[in-house]
Every structure is written in C-alpha cells, then in structure tokens.
C-alpha cells in the first residue's frame, strides 16, 4: 500500500506541473476555439493515469523534473526507498518547496526498529485510501439517486426522454447514454438543447468527464486536480456551445443564451455537480463567450492545431537526458558520472548503483547486486560479486589483483556518499564466499584526512583518483 501511495504522489506532482502549464496555455489560447483548451486537459488525465511515459528533449518537465529521473520512464519526486533512507528527502523540482518539506522529515532513529518516515508514509496511505473510498461511495450514491429520479421518464424519440422530475437537461448513462429533458420545453429551446447534448454524446464526453472525476477522487488530496476538473468542465461546455452556434448560425446566439440562463436559474439541487447537466456552471462566462464567439478561419484552426500537438507532446513526455561524452580518467573512472551521482545518503539506491557503474570492475569479478543497511548506524553498503575467473577458481593471485581495486573504489565511495560508514564486499565462487570490509575510519586514517572534501568538485575528485595509485593495503 505504501508503494502504491508513493506512485500516486509522484503521478500527482507530475500532473500538477502539467496542469499549471495547461492553465497558462489556456490564457494564451483564450481567443481560440475552446475545443483546443478542452483537448489539452487530456495531458493531465494521461499523467494521472500512467506512472511512466516516453522521453523527449521537448518535455516541459525538464524545467522542474527531479534530479536523477531524467531519461527514465517515471518521474520520481518522492523516492520509492524514502522510508529506508537515513535522512529522507524529496525532490519536488522547486528548491524552496523541497527544502521546506525535507526540513520537516524526521531522520532515521538509530535505536528504532522502524524508520519514522515509514510510519508517516503508511499513515498517509491509509488516510488517502479512506478519503478515496468515501468520495467513491458518495459518487455511487449520487448516481443511483439520479437513476431513480429518471426511471419514470417517457420516451420522446430516439434516445431522448422527458420527465417532470428534473429542471435542467442532461446526458445520463455510460453504455447507452440518453438525453433527459424537463417536461414542457418549447420547440425553440428543444432544438438548442438537443444539439448541445448530442454533441456531448458524439464526442464521448459522457465517458470523459466521469473518468476525470474518478481520477480526481484518486488524487483528492491535490487541490490543483479539483481546479483542473472545474476548468476542464468549463472548456467542455463552452466547446459544445460553439458547436451549436456553428451549426445553427450566429442568429441563435440571443435565444440560446436565454435558454442557458433560464435552465441555470431553475436547475434543481439534484443535478448540481452532476456530469453534463446543461447550464450547470459558469453561466455568466458561457453567455459572454457565446455572444462574443466568431467563426475561426481555416488558417487559425491549422495554427492552433499545431500548437496543441506541440503542447501535448511537451506535457506528456518525460525529460530526455542530454548525452555528453563521459570523461574517463586514465584509471578507468568516469568522472562526470561520479560527480553527477554524488549523494548525501547511502539509502539513495539509484545513485549508489550509478556510482558503481562509473568505476572499473576488478579483474575476474562480475556484479551481482547491492544491499543497503540504513535502519541504524553504522550505515553500510554491501556490494555482491560473482567470481568469473577463466580458471574457474578463486586463487591467491586473483585475490591480490582484485582487493586493491576494491580498496580504491571504496575510497571514492566514501568521498561521494557522505553518510557511508562501512563498505562490504561479498564474493561468491562456486558455493564459497569471500568477504572484504572497509570502514570510513580506516580509510581516513590510511589517507591521513577526511576524503569527503575531495568529492566536492571535479578538480578534487581527479586529485583523489590520481592519488589512488600510491595508496596500498597495509600488509
């Protein structure tokens, strides 16, 4: 459940940045047909549904994406291993917000059996689950209530039903959507309203809006998602209003606005907040938009389409890592990658793995994974290897050749992982295990100083790498 909660958080933060981008784009597109603004909200929906995405250098998230997640399928603002970190930290993409949140997160207590952040994450997942279930049950109750109200409706024609139990028209149903209208509508009102509601059905809005509402329920803790739902509903209704004006002509603007106002005034509390109720919200803004609407030219439609396509790609893509040629030292260390993967916490598994990948592999060994000890001090990293000697056997000569490179790698790891206390090596060879252990204390003593300052910049790191050749194991 905690892993699911962290995935929801990461999707919600990602969708928040996309939602802000869509809101800004709506301002720039305020004179364009509302169907374009409506289409943009699909990017927010995609971000709320899918935890992974493709990568592109055109992604808008490169401006706010978390460090270390570029080029991956998922944006990880909240690390999945945060509950195991000695000093838990999140990367919101905004320095001030991230610093504030990280200052509130409690560090791991050495004497405790469970990290306090693990308890916080579990409690948060339970609160999220209870809230989502409550809202979902309320939505089901509201749906059943409306279904009971319209069950006595009379068929007018096709899929249009009339009833005196409602005060405003709406579309209802998922598999077989029907248009429900109040009794006593005039012919003029009927032509406007049926065209509006039929547009909803033709565009599958009766599925889109409930789906968006379901996603808002899953992300109910995020106020930006509620705002997105309101604005998407507004764009949906205005785009349908535009469809009516295009088909019936500008001469119906006055009567259509009157119908919208009339149904809005006398709508019942039953339909407030229901999917696709005519005249449900933003009445003043919709009437002003109807009266000001002008048929767009084909050139402006083509330009808007191009802009929307580019915005959708930018909003749905993850940032792509810009590849730079790695600077490899004479000793086989990738300096750029080592500096990029420097971390304060040994619990940051992705960066620790990247550090190992930037170091030369000792002769006769192949990597077999890592283990992290982060619950209490001393914080330890265990690196597992398999013996891959062509002779098929671990021997004294190979051991001597491998142990010194392991020492050199350990020195760099202690310089680039601030809170690492112990580096363990476990070597498996046909059922026989060999182990080496290096502590920060003995490494600092061997070099005569704290090695962490060397990892501060490229100059210091290169100086440390050059010094490794003179560092030998004590006999």
From TrEMBL:
It comes from the Bacteria. Keywords: Membrane, Transmembrane, Transmembrane helix. It holds the Pfam family Peptidase_M56. Residues 8-290 form the Peptidase M56 domain. InterPro entries: Beta-lactam_resp_regulator, DUF4825, Peptidase_M56. Residues 338-438 form the DUF4825 domain. The keyword Transferase does not apply. The chain crosses the membrane at residues 6-28, 35-54, 119-141, 211-232. This is M56 family metallopeptidase. The lineage of its organism: Bacteria, Bacillati, Bacillota, Bacilli, Bacillales.
């Amino acid at each position: 459940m905690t892993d699911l909660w962290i995935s929801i958080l990461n999707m919600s933060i990602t969708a928040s940045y996309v939602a802000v981008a869509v809101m800004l784009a709506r301002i720039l597109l305020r004179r364009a047909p509302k169907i374009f603004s409506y289409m943009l909200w699909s990017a927010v929906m995609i971000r709320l549904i899918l935890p992974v995405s493709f990568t592109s250098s055109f992604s808008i998230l490169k401006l706010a994406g978390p460090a270390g997640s570029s080029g991956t399928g998922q944006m990880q603002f909240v690390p999945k291993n945060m509950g195991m970190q000695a000093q838990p930290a999140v990367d919101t993409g905004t320095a001030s917000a991230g610093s504030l949140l990280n200052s509130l997160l409690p560090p791991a207590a050495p004497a405790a059996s469970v990290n306090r952040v693990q308890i916080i994450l579990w409690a948060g997942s339970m609160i999220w689950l209870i809230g989502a279930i409550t809202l979902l049950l309320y939505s089901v109750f509201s749906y059943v209530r409306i279904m009971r109200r319209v069950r006595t409706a009379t068929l007018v024609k096709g899929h249009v039903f009339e009833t005196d139990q409602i005060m405003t028209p709406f579309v209802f149903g998922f598999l077989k959507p029907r248009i429900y209208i109040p009794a006593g509508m005039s012919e003029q009102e009927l032509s406007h309203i049926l065209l509006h509601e039929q547009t909803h059905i033709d565009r599958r809005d009766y599925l889109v809006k409930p789906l968006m509402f379901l996603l808002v329920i899953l992300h109910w803790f995020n106020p930006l998602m509620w705002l997105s739902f309101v604005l998407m509903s507004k764009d949906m209704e205005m785009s349908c209003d535009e469809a009516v004006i295009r088909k019936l002509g500008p001469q119906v603007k006055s009567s259509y606005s009157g119908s919208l106002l009339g149904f809005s005034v006398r709508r019942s509390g039953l339909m407030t907040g229901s999917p696709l109720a005519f005249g449900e919200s933003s009445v003043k803004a919709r009437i002003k938009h109807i009266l000001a609407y002008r048929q767009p030219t084909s050139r402006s439609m083509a330009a808007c389409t191009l802009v929307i396509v580019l915005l959708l790609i930018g909003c749905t893509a993850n940032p792509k890592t810009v590849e730079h040629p790695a600077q490899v030292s004479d000793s086989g260390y990738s300096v750029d990658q080592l500096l990029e993967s420097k971390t304060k916490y040994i619990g940051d598994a992705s960066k620790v793995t990247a550090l190992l990948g930037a170091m030369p592999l000792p002769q006769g060994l192949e990597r077999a994974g890592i283990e992290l000890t982060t619950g209490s001090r001393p914080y330890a990293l265990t690196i597992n290897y398999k013996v891959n000697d062509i002779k098929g056997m671990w021997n004294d000569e190979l051991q001597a050749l491998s142990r010194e490179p392991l020492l050199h790698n350990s020195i760099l790891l202690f310089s680039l992982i601030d809170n690492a206390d112990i580096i363990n090596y476990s070597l498996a060879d046909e059922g026989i295990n060999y182990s080496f252990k290096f502590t920060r204390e003995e490494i600092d003593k061997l070099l005569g100083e704290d090695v962490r300052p060397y990892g501060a910049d490229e100059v210091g790191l290169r100086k440390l790498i050059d010094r490794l050749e003179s560092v030998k194991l004590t006999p």
